[in-house]
Amino acid sequence: MSATLLAGISRTTEPLTMLRRFLAADAAVTGANGLAYAVASAPLGRLLGVDGTLLLGLGLFLTAYAACVGLLAARPRPPRTAVTLVVDTNILWSVLSIAALLLWLDPTAAGAAWTVIQALTVAGFAVAQWSALRATATE
Questions:
Q1: Nearest 10 degrees: CA dihedral of 29, 85, 99, 27?
Q2: Per residue in 64-116, pLDDT tens?
Q3: Which residues cross the membrane (predicted)?
Q4: Please, are residues 48 and 112 in contact by the beta-carbon 8 Å criterion?
Q5: Number of H-type helices and E-type strands within the chain
Q6: Which residues neighbour 63 within 8 Å (Cβ) at sequence distance 6 or greater?
Q7: Residue 109: which of 51, 48, 54, 50 has the closest Cα?
Q8: Rounded alpha-carbon distances, angstroms, from residue 22 to 15, 27, 72, 114
Q9: In whole angstroms, what is the distance from residue 139 CA to residue 115 CA?
Q10: What is the mean pLDDT of residues 133-139?
């Protein structure tokens, strides 16, 4: 991902600010998704064709994960190791989402589309965060 594209998306050319904004966006999106899964697991489960208990567990996990990523984003200089862990977790989530879709889940059409969309979104966060993290190394 080019620095120009990152700067446009994050509305800054300052790598550390980019990184913190990408982490904060990840936390907000993941937190909203997690809360929706946790609060409305039964109706969302029916819509997506996914077990409501599974969504509840994922929702609780995602809400806690989002809180951790949000705390990391709030740090003036997020530790490189912690950011790398977030990037790795996001990549793993994306891969496992697609694997679950292909190997395990039997979702509705909406559920299949949602699984792909969220996997691509999470992968996008990973790429943006990794690129911004790499750019901070040159500061």
A1: -10
A2: 999 999 999 999 999 999 999 999 999 999 999 999 999 999 999 999 999 99
A3: 21-40, 52-73, 85-105, 111-133
A4: no
A5: 6, 0
A6: 31, 34, 35, 38
A7: 48
A8: 10, 9, 11, 21
A9: 37
A10: 81
Q: List, in sequence order, the alpha helices (H) in 40-79.
A: 41-48, 52-74
Provide the residue type at 37 as one letter.
Y
CA dist., res. 30 & res. 136, Å (int): 24
Those residues whose C-beta lies under 8 Å from the C-beta of residue 8, and which sit 6 or more positions away, are: none
Structure tokens at 7: 């700067």
Tokens of 40: 């409305």
Place of tokens 């999470």: 122
Residue 9 pLDDT greater than 60, yes or no = no
At 2, the pLDDT band (50, 70, 90 cuts) reads: very low
The model carries a pTM of 0.88
* CA atoms within a 13 Å half-sphere pointing along the CA-CB vector of 35: 7
